[in-house]
Amino acid sequence: MCSYAYGIAAEGKEARRSLGAAGASSGGTHGARLRLAVMLGWACATTLAHAQGPRPADAAPALSPVVVTGTRTEKTLDETPIRTEVVDGAEIERTHARTLKQALEDVPGLQLTEVHGKSGYEVSLQGLTSDQVLVLIDGLPITASTGSTVDLSQYLLTEVDHIEVVKGATSAQYGSSAMGGVINVITRPIQPGFSGEAVLDVGSHGAQNPSGRSFDTASRHARVRLDGGSEKWRYRLTGDVLHGDGFAVDPLAWARQGDAARRGQLGGRLEWLPSASTRLWLDASRYREDDTQRFNYFAPPNDVPQSKDEAITRDRLTWGGLWRGEQGLRAEVKGVSERYASDSETYSNAFLQQSRQASQRTDHVTAQVDLPAWHRQLWQFGADLHRESLSQSADGTAELIGGQARRSSHELFAQNDILFNDTWELLLGLRGQRDSDFGVHFAPKASLRARLLDGPDWSSSLRASFGRGYRVPNLKERYFLFDHSSLGYMVIGNPNLKPESSNSFQLGAQVALKNHFSLDVNLFDNRVSDLIQVDEANAASVGGITHFTYQNIARARTRGLEALATWRARPGLDLRASYTYTQTRNLDTGIELTRRPRQSLRLGADWQAGAASTLSLRARYQGSELVDTTTGGRSPAWSTLDVVFNHKLGRATTAFAGVNNLFNRQRAFGDPNDFGPLAGRFIYVGIRHAFGTTP
C-alpha cells in the first residue's frame, strides 16, 4: 500500500548505492463488539479485492521516500538506520486532514489525547508523554502551548508536503524534549512557474450540532495556496481558515462537549537562488485562534454554568540559507523567532471570574556542515542555540515564581555515518548540551543497519539503535502557578526539579516483496530516570483547595512491539495494518503508568473503484488504559471507522465526501474514567481544485 509513500526520483537511491560501491560513503461482550466494529472495515476492504469492476493498470513502482529527520542528511526510507514513519502528501489529501492532529491519527504506535484544561490535542510515542516528544516545522521548533506541550490542533496543513516521525531518543540531531521521539513537518518545495490549490469543505455533527438542527453545517473550512516564480526568485502565499461551532450531546443544555473554535493561518515565503548551489529563504506566518468552552461546575445542589474564552496568536518568522559544494560538501544555517500569546477569560453565571494573560518567546538557530565522503565515512557537525521565555499573569498578578521564566542552551553535535560495505552501515553520534540552569550533559547515540537481502524481488534489512535521552524541566513545570481554586485545586511549579534522562533501545527488521508486500517489526525499550509528573499521592489540602506540585518521583520503563504490514492485494487495492503492544511500569511502585493503552490497531484500505474514483477506509482500535492508580479505574477500549470517497471531475478538480467515526462511538461523558473518542459521527463534503502550470 502506498498510503504513506512519498515518491522521489530514482536517482537519489542510485547515487547512494554508487557512493557505497566507491568506498566513499478488555475481554467482555462490549470489548468484543468494539473489535468487531474495527474488523468490519477491514473485512469490507478485503472483499473489494474480489469485486467486479474496472481494473486499472498497475501503478508505476513506488519509490522509497526520502527522509531527513533522523540524520539531517537525505536518505531513502528503506536505507535509514533510524526508525522512521512517513505520512505523505497523498495520504493527507486522500483523508482530507485539516490539522496536524488529524494527519497523525493513523501513525502506528502514536497516541493522541486532549490537552488538559484546554481545547486541543497532544501526542505521545512509545509510552512517553507529549512533553518528551519534540515537534518541528522544517527542523525548527514550534512553541508549546503555555510552555508545556505542543497543541497539534494549532497547525493547519496548507503548505505541508509530508510528515516524518522518528521514534525513540536515537538521533544525535535533537536535544532536550526529544526523549520519546521527533515529529518533523516538512513543507513542500516551491517550483518555478505558477501553481496552486484551493479547497472548500463543510461538515456536520448531525443531532449534536449546537443549533439542534441535524442538517446545519457545524464546520466550515477553506484554504488556498499560490506558488510561483522563476529559476532565481520564488514565492508562496497561503491562507487557511477552519471554523467549528463545536458539538453538544444535548444542544438545548448549556454545556458543550466539543468547544467552538475559529482558527486562521496566513503565511508567505520568499526564496532567492543566486546560483544552482545556493538557496536563501525567508518565511513568515501568523496563526489566530478564538476558542470558547462551555461546561458546568457542580456546586451542591446545583450545576453552575461556566465558560472560558481564549484568544491565541502565534507569529512565526523563519529564515535560512543552504549551500551545496562539490563531492557532497554541504553547509546550512537556519533559525526561527516565534511569539505566542494567549488571553483567556473565565466566567461563572456570565460574571467574569478571572482574566489570564500568557506570553512566550522562542528563538532558535541551528547550523550544520556535511563533509565530503572520506574513507567510507560521512562526517557531519552542527550547533544549536536556543532561548525561550514565559510570562503569565491572572488578574494582573504574576503566576510565575519570579514573574518571568527564562532558559537558554547551547548544543553541539557530531555524527559519523560509516559505510563498511553494501551490507553494513554504522551511524555514531554524540550531542553535548550546556543549559543555563542545569549545566553540561552529553548524550551518545549509535545505530546499526544491515541489508541482508537486496534481490530483484525480495529485500530485507535489520536495524538496531541505542540513544541516551535527556530533558530539562520545562518552564511551566518549574515556575507555573496554575490556580483553579474555583474548581477546587491548583498546580504549583517546582523550581528544584532535576532533568529527566533515559536509555532508548530499538531493534527492528523489515522484509519486502517489492511493490506487493512489506512487513516491518520493531521492538522498543525505554527506561526513564527522574520522571517528572504531578505528585498526586502527596497532594496537600489548604483551605479546602487541593495543592498539587511536580516532582521527580519515579523510575519508569516502557517497552513493546510495533508491527506494520502493507499489501497490494490487487491492482487498485492497497491494504495496510499496524499493531502496537505497549507495557509500562513505574519501577518504584510496580504499577503501570496512567493513560498508556496496552494495545492499538490501525487498519487502512484504498480502493481505486474506477478511473476517477477512490474509496478509502481508516479503522482504529485502542485497548483499555489505566486512568486512576488509586481506584484502578480504566478507560474502556474503543474503535472507530472513517470512510472517504474521492471523485475526480477533471484533471485538476476533485469532489469528496466522508464520514468520520461511522459507527458513532463516543465516550460516556458521565463516566470520569472514559477517555474514548470525544466527537461522535461527523459527515463532510468538499471540493479541491489545483491550478497553474510548472515547467
Q: How many distinct helices?
A: 5
CATH superfamily: TonB-dependent receptor, beta-barrel domain
> What shape does the CA trace take?
globular
Helical percentage: under 10%
Mean pLDDT: 88
Hey, roughly how much beta strand do the residues contain?
over 45%
CATH architecture: Beta Barrel
Low-confidence stretches: 1-61
Instruction: Outline the biggest β-sheet.
Output: 22 strands, antiparallel, barrel
What's the CATH topology label?
A: Maltoporin, Chain A
CATH class category name: Mainly Beta
Distance between the termini: 30 Å
Q: Any idea what the radius of gyration is?
A: 25 Å
Number of strands: 37
Number of separate domains: 1
* Helical/strand content category: mainly beta
Gist?
Helix content is 7%, strand content 56%. The chain is mainly beta and 695 residues long.
Note down, in words, how this protein is organized.
The longest helix is centred in the N-terminal third of the chain and has 20 residues, at 29-48. The chain has a single domain (11-413, 426-693), classed as Maltoporin, Chain A (Beta Barrel), CATH 2.40.170. The strands form 5 sheets. The chain has a 22-stranded antiparallel barrel. It has a 5-stranded mixed sheet with strand order 3-8-9-6-7. The chain has a two-stranded antiparallel sheet with strand order 1-2. The protein contains 5 helices and 37 strands. The protein has 695 residues and is mainly beta. A hairpin with a 2-residue loop joins β6 and β7. The chain is globular, with a radius of gyration of 25 Å.
